[in-house]
Design a protein that fits this description.
18 helices, mainly alpha, 74% helix, ABC transporter involved in vitamin B12 uptake, BtuC
Length: 439
């Protein structure tokens, strides 16, 4: 038997599961992340079949991306909260409180209290700045009580859950505050709050270039320090798969067109003659999705490339050892909560801008969705384990379940039952994997 025949024989005798593990190890793809992508594909295909072909359409997928953005933005911060062996139950109420505050700034305080009028060019900047600063201060205060006061995070944030929700009604006695500043409203997406055809393709091209550069430069740095590197075929596979995902996402966003009435009005305002089938204007990538991409990149950088992120994971792994190693555990916890407050403010801006109003039920149950997204994304309540990208993908899974059930006309209680079952199953799977790893 020749050597080539022997190699082929060994390859053919390799079990499929081992071949898959070898492939994932060579490409350095996180097995949990790969499993979630597979689960998401099953969910999408299943709902597409059950809904009669309504799920995997550009319109539904575009709406899904926008609806997932708000929860995903907060989930990127919840990862670090849970990784540090803490919890934040106040994010939903805090979102409502900050959303109301930013709405008051632009709809009442600037135009009426200060007498400066509506639609000032700086209104949206001031409103967003107030929300972010206030979010960081409130988050930092809760973190200070947890870290320096010794009060369990569950109790502190449960108190925040009640306090911030109560203050919403103190603001305007439960009245809806609307409308928002026109520029501010673009943060929420919609046909006008999107990049359009050309801008989306440019963003996609830039994303592909950045992806290729990141993979190649990572291999070069590893080779320079004598670390193991990915094989060339593995690098090419990662770049090709990532590029295909980016191009597919941009194609879907550009195949969702403006509503016919809005397109007709656009044509009339600009003197454009509409064709027989109507004017089709690509919507493109929505601004909330761009904000989510930016937040994900920044949070991933903080979690994996900065000392702050390493400290958080060290604290989650072993708080006592982290403190003995010279890490200021208390200060780090305060910073994690302050960062969470900033992310809640950004998410509040997205939600109020999308609604073009602040309502009393803003953020209700968001804390459960955010925690569920982080846990489904692989974050362990035991601490020290979790990824930002996993949390974002977990948010997409959560919203996919809700979106699919809406298409199938499931009522709200049934949706909550299904999400609850998925959450318990995710935590149970995490516990099972941890038990196996310790054997």
């Amino acid at each position: 038997m020749t050597e080539a025949t022997s190699v082929r024989q060994r390859t053919s005798d390799t079990p499929p599961s081992r071949s898959i593990r070898t492939f994932l190890a060579s490409t350095e793809i996180d097995t949990r992340l790969a499993g979630m992508i597979g689960a998401l594909a099953v969910i999408w295909i299943g709902f597409h079949v059950m809904s009669g072909g309504l799920f995997l359409t550009p319109r539904n997928l575009w709406n899904l991306s926008v609806q997932s953005s708000s929860i995903a933005i907060m989930a990127t911060g919840m990862v670090l909260i849970i990784v540090s062996r803490n919890i934040d139950l106040s994010v939903g109420s805090l979102l409502g409180f900050l959303g109301y505050t930013m709405a008051m700034v632009q709809a009442i305080w600037i135009p009426t209290t200060l007498g400066l009028g509506f639609e000032q060019p700086y209104t949206w900047i001031v409103a967003l700045g107030v929300g972010i600063v206030l979010g960081a201060a409130i988050g930092g205060l809760q973190g200070f009580i947890v870290a320096y006061g010794g009060v369990p995070s569950f109790i502190v944030t449960l108190g925040g859950f009640l306090i911030w929700r109560g203050l919403i009604f103190r603001y305007a006695q439960g009245q809806t505050i609307a409308p928002m500043d026109a520029t501010y409203s673009l943060i929420g997406g919609g046909p006008l709050g999107s990049l359009g055809d050309t801008g989306s393709w440019i963003v996609g091209a830039v994303a592909i270039v950045v992806l290729a550069w990141t993979v190649i430069s990572s291999n070069r740095r590893r080779r320079a320090y004598g670390f193991p590197v990915r094989p060339t075929w593995a690098m090419a596979t990662v770049i090709a798969a990532g590029s295909a995902a980016v191009l597919g996402f941009v194609w879907v966003a550009n195949n969702y067109f403006w509503p016919p009435a809005l397109a007709t009005r656009y044509a009339l305002e600009r003197g454009i003659t509409e064709p027989a089938g109507g004017l089709q204007i690509p919507t493109g990538i929505a601004y909330p999705v761009l904000i989510l991409i930016g937040v994900t990149l920044v949070m991933t950088y903080l979690a994996t490339r900065r000392r702050f992120g390493r400290y958080v994971y060290s604290i989650g792994g072993n708080p006592e050892a982290a403190e003995l190693g010279g890490i200021n555990v208390r200060r780090t916890i305060v910073r994690v909560y302050a960062l969470m407050g900033i992310l809640v403010a950004i998410s509040a801006a997205v939600q109020t801008a999308r609604l073009d109003a602040a309502v009393t039920n803003l953020g209700v149950q968001n804390e459960l969705d955010v925690i569920a997204a982080a846990v489904i994304g692989g974050t362990s309540f035991a601490g020290g384990i979790g990824t930002v990208t996993g949390a974002v993908l977990g948010a997409v899974v959560m919203q996919s379940l809700r979106s699919g059930m809406v298409l199938l006309r499931f009522d709200s209680p049934t949706q909550d039952i299904v999400v609850g079952i998925v959450l318990v199953a995710a935590v149970g799977l995490d516990a099972l994997l941890r038990r196996r790893s310790t054997r």
